[in-house]
Amino acid sequence: MLYRPLGSSGLQVSVLGLGSWLTIGNAIDEGSAERLCAHAHANGVNLFDTADVYNDGEGERALGRAIRGLRRSSLVLATKCFFPFGDGPNDRGLSRKHIHESVRGSLQRLGTDYIDLYQCHRFDPAVPVLETAMAMDDLIRRGLVLYWGTSQWPAERIAEVVELCRRERLHRPISNQPLYNLYDRGIEATILPTSARYGLGQLVYSPLAQGVLTGKYVPGQPQPAGSRAVDPRSNQFVGRYLTEPRLQQAQQLVALAGRLGTTALQLALAFCLRDARVSSVLVGARDSGQLDQSLAAAGATLAPDTVSALDRLFPA
Predict the structure, then answer these.
(1) DSSP label at 86?
(2) Among 64, 102, 244, 295, which is 20 to 30 Å from 37 by CA?
(3) Which residues are catalytic?
(4) What's the pLDDT band for 271 if we cut at 50, 70, 90?
(5) What is the DSSP letter of 76?
(6) Where are the domains of the chain?
(7) Does domain 3-209+272-287 have CATH number 3.20.20.100?
(8) Contact between 35 and 288 (Cβ < 8 Å)
(9) Is residue 122 within 8 Å of 140, Cβ to Cβ?
(10) Half-sphere exposure of 97 (CA within 13 A, CB side)
């Protein structure tokens, strides 16, 4: 396993992190989750990412149970807050009140006394940025959180909050968690350069476009049994990738990978990792076998002509 610093901080994260959005606490049972996390950890994965809203808190509970046998100091445990977690007017967003109550809930569900990386799941236009930054700084000073980050924030808001933190002498965010894959390359224009300028590393998610970039969805053929496309718990997210043009692109990626002696999955992950501004790529897996396919891409490098071929096939 290789490790990269998370932005300009001293925190080292594995280049592949284990995400849990649609798996741990959702699609796999407790025993499978524990085996998956143990396997990931044994292979050098130290970053485990979740969020309070995943399956209404069950994602955090399940991850907490799955990692309880692992040495806590060897883990970088990341979670998030923002989305509604109740029906009240203050049960959502990035107000000091909601952040304070959310972190308490996350700590309890995860079974830990501190969170390594606490992330603002989205930008909240209804709350002053200073209020959010002060709340995060407060959590760090109290030792409940070690670092904080953003997720899916626009470039101008990232710049705003870092400048504000510098001016007010607050702990600044060190990371951003954006959507990034061969189909979705929007962060390359402004998010990546702005984040690099202000010292935020990227923890990118959905690098395989919900599995479509593996090539398992073949144009004109039935969707594979057991795949996300036929799972009502997750198929609302994969649908936008299941268009004929995108499925054809995925098959061309499979062909390119075959000529290079690798797989479409590993090529798609290596594409994300080719950029040093990406600190870690978050992958999902239902079992150790699936995870091993991703782990094989941890040290992969892409030749310039391969990058050019991918740019032609998946223009930014």
Answers:
(1) S
(2) 102
(3) 54
(4) very high
(5) E
(6) 3-209+272-287
(7) yes
(8) yes
(9) no
(10) 7
